[in-house]
Protein 1
Amino acid sequence: MENNPSVKLHNINALKFKPEKKYNLIVCFEMLEHLHEDLKLLKLINSWMKNDGFLLISVPHNEKLWNIRDEQAGHLRRYSKDEIKNKLKKANLKPTRILCYGFPFIRLFLGTYLKIEEKMQKKTGKEDKTNTSQTRPVLPRRMKKISAPILKHLFKFDNLFLNSDRGFGLVIMAKKITQ
């Protein structure tokens, strides 16, 4: 890798993107789950990578954890570790590391948070119907201000479970397979 690496940021329609050059590293967070043709995108990404290039992706994990936030965000699926590994393999990408984040405290917190939010929406009749990942919760600021410092320390405990299969999200590092 170069001594002075450069970074190019692209906010793209991925299936129509035509790169000017090949990349050492491509980062693709929270995107595949929105596409009907996720494998097609992985194959395209492979074609954009230099030999021995890397792909860093994140995707929602565990179909059993499907919730209203997935629908609001426009997700089409959540992935199992095996499913994402198989898709990467079909795209000539080899996972070198898979981390499963969000267990136990973040998962517990989000489940509780969603239930409280639902109750508040029913009580106030106020619902955010925005179909984006930028939906705004209706919980009071004071509640967030009090809970944030406590949760910050609890969430650090989740790092002990990054190699488990219990979290709600996956972060995967994959390497381009060269023939």
Protein 2
Amino acid sequence: MSRRFIAFATTSLLASGVVVGLGAAPASAAGFRVGATSTAASAGAPSVSSARYPDALTPHGGIALSGDFTMESAAGDAVRYEYHFTGPELGDSQPWFERSPQTPGGPLTIEWTPLFSGVHELTVHSFDADGNQSETAVFKFWVLDTRPTVTSTDYPGIFFHDLKFNVGVPGEFHIDGPAGAERLDWRFEDSEPTGSVVPDADGDADVKITPTEGGYQLLWVRAIKTIDGKERKFPEHAYAFLVDNGPLVSGGVYREMFLGDKVSVHATPRVPGVKEYRYWFGLDGGGITEQVAVPAKSDGSADFVFTVTDPTQRDLYVRTVDADGDLSVARHTSASVSDRPKVVSSEFPEIGTARLIPGTFTFTPREPGVTSYRYTLNGGPAVTVKAKADGTATITVTPSVARTHELVVRSFVGEAGSEETWYVFKVAPAAVKVTAAGPASVTTGGVRTITVKGSNLLRKDVLQVTPAGGKAITATIKSVSADGTTAVADVNLTGAPAGVASVTLRPYGAGQAAVVLAKAFTIVLQAKPVATKRPAISGTVMVGKVVKAVPGTWSPAATGYRYQWAANGVAIKGATGSALTIPASVAGKRLTVTVTATRAGHQPGTAASAATAAVAKAKAPKATKKPKITGTPKVGKKLTANVGTWLPKVDSYRYQWRVNGKVIKGATGRTLKLKSAWRNKKITVTVIAKKAGHVDGKAISASVKIR
């Protein structure tokens, strides 16, 4: 067998956890030299091969896994070889090693152990017996990284953390080991292996690991695999992650702070047995303030207030201390301190677009003793305004151009200026819209409140309501929502006609067109008056008599009345006055009157009286001159009834003849032919006077004797 040589690894292990010392020293110190000299024409480069590390196309072998490398001269005449290795752990300036083959002209096999993964190079040339150097061979090979990698969404490294996970809360870790690994072992820093798992064929495994300490942790993981019949433990790899057991902090701290601010903080523990809290601030330039201790309450929480006094203060840090003195991770809250002035404007908000209108800006100091302010608008000349006694100042600006404007403001205490406040606002004709108005029905007759919906509405807009067929009525806008979508206005609809009304909005500001919403809402009359005491009829209910309507009592009070008289429920034509002379046509019928109460802006109300008793007939006509019988009272002759004279004038007459006081059957005409049976008897006639609506009048003539 040929002798085998093991190359000496010259580079110590870096902070990767790889074990050092797998290489062996050269067989003799005399075998080491730097630089070789060629004295004749070069032969071809030696060939190099390795079973474990065959090429640089794909990774092979593994970190700390030795491999054999065989080199053989092209001419078969080599009596010695010079070679060196380069790679990620070695660098490019490595010493050369000199070895001789066991048999002159034969191959040379060496063993070498890589300490890093990645592409390495073995550089070789040979020498013949005359000292001639061959061409140089560069053999590249790729060392597989056998260190497992670790990922976890539950404990995702040192810069990110999920507050659901804490000390004692198991999290899932994914270990990605080399293919064919038979076992994966893990441990925490400064501890023996605490767990292992059998991976799948690809070397991967998911495990649940429960941290026992807070803060930054190192999880060391290594792969174990049987190679050449021996169990090989590959180098470890560390996964750094944060176990965040710091308290939860709330209050006014995640913001820009200003001198003089009193900031309230509430801290809630995320570990048991908290005795106190400690907080401090970072400072510009990298310093920190002294820590302040705050005792924990019975529930483990704490409340504290601090006043911002130092302009160099920056982030707030809060941690817990338990009964054993163990400190939690410090909770870091982003905050900064500024002395820049506060700038506000109701007309020109920082969010959204303002109209082309005049507006004001108010500057408020955030440092004591401010004497003036200096501002520029859109990079124009600086303008200085004096501060008022309370330290504030107000300016008026009237933008004339639609664009984005930049107002830069500083406050001054004497000549010392604060940080700048940049106030950016946009000005353009607003896209004002009116999309709805309500309520759907609004009663006339007084001041009514309406609500208008839309966009970009302002208090200074002019709102008009136009009733159907009426003139526009200007409303008074009482309020507008902060987002400009709702306006509430009062409008006086006294005397406004009922019907569908439109709304016109005339936006405040230059370049703004009026916006019209047709059919915005319906103006309706108010509720009709209601009779609290029903109408009544007064007077004698008799034909020819006058009866009067008593309208009753109404709420609200009526301002006018209309009437309709009826007999037995049927309207009497033309009977629409408050009084009625009872016509003969309704004799025997019951009268009612319906009163319609009217009031401006209200629907009319109606109520009917109770029915009267049946209309009585008028008194019977009277004969002022009695009826008289004319003609010859002799058998066979005709007698005629003269009706006489009647008051009032009658409509018609009927007759009834009698003989000796007895009714002559069928004798109802004005004339009567005398019969022989009536000789020497007395004849009378009764005249019945008929007049509509009156009792029949009756009168009897004087008697005549029949001859």
Protein 3
Amino acid sequence: MKVAIAGYDVEGRATYDYARQVWPAAEIVIADERRITDVPPGVVDVLTGPDAFAQLGDADIVMRTPGLAPWRIETDGTVWSATNEFFARCPAPIIGVTGTKGKGTTVSLIAAMLQALGRTVHVVGNIGQPALAQLGQISPDDVVVYELSSFQLWDAERSPQVAVVLMIEPDHLDKHVNFAEYVDAKANIRRHQRPGDVCIYHPSNPYAAQIAESLDTDVARGSLGTPPPAYRYGTPDDGMVYVKDGAFWQGERRLCAT
């Protein structure tokens, strides 16, 4: 079996370490447009230069780094990602957070609240360690809070059990084809949810609402016939907790500073 790591950045290095553990007999190839000076042991080939990602035709699996668009990879094998691999193998429930701004703050708040309840929490993604670097430390009773960018969600084939969708605005249009494609990538946080999962989304942002409605209904309904629900997070009108003037509020009561 031949495994290609497309993009040898921080996550690419974590993917190499993971691949060595999970597929010890695999031939590993590294591809990156930049020059690689720290080639790890056991790598059978290193491809660099502007056409590096077009030379992976004989790889069985290509593990892409988040910032690399899937369609830039030319291969006869399977294009996969650390996000897909983590979702497929993680033994604990995952709370995924996406949005244009505020992901890191929201992830930190969720993690702090869960830790205050005595839960063991693993923060992964942009704000934490690469997800695959932590996978071996996670037990079924833990909780994972995953900061998910559009790059990590680009080709995601699974969704987290809890999807949190913050405000969506145009961003990363130097990487995405257009804004619609950016929103569609983000929608994978909700698209593959199953019965028992839940989505919490920004109530006044039309793109967050669009994502909340982007279920694959055949998957979502399953045998129960009921799709996983989507809930708006708090607004001044519904009595729930919301943010105003740099503080958390419930109704007219100021709770604390953000």
Protein 4
Amino acid sequence: MSRSGPLLLAAAILMGPVATSASPVPFVPLPYDMPNGDGVASGGTFNYWDALYNGAGNTMQDGAPLSGGWGKLTDGVAATTPWFADADLGGTGLYVGWRRGFTTDPTLTFLFPVPVCLCVRLTIDSVTIWLDNTGVGGVGAPLAILLDGLPLPFAPPAPGTVGPVAFGGLGLRGPFHDLQFVQDPALPWTMVSEIQWTGFLTYIPAPGAVLLFGPALAFLGAFRRRAG
């Protein structure tokens, strides 16, 4: 999976002079804040932490608050096998897992690279979530997925399988958006391997807008350098 999403969005700023839209491109990687996954201390066989997370917080503690970075969930790598295929005590497997009763109904907050240039508008178009719904070890799809507090109708992967759940046509604006997983008491473990958002930029021509391209590109360029 390419990590060029923010760079492609930056390139889209140069479109004009009439209003144009880029095709949706993925944000990879994308910063997010969340509670760390759970593991042995919460009754798991292994640790389902976000051990690769590069922001603040203790990535080796169940449910610890993590902020200001990115890790497994937006690295562009989605699992095609069940959670137990590569789970380990180091928390480096593909899945992040939360157990109801320990880290109940976890909420993840994502930060998007909104342009500083008023001549450019960012629209967040879709989100795809890769879930485990095998039922093995009490792992299953959540009862509900909330986007900014509102439920998203969805069909989970077939029982006994893993796979994506996609939501399109979101039309979201603004830099911060939340996803919350409402867990099933009968299947208390929620295992997620990847969350991919896509978006596009629309250029809005205005007098003097060209003079603002520099700050906008600098902003997205800095985001790109942090991703590296």
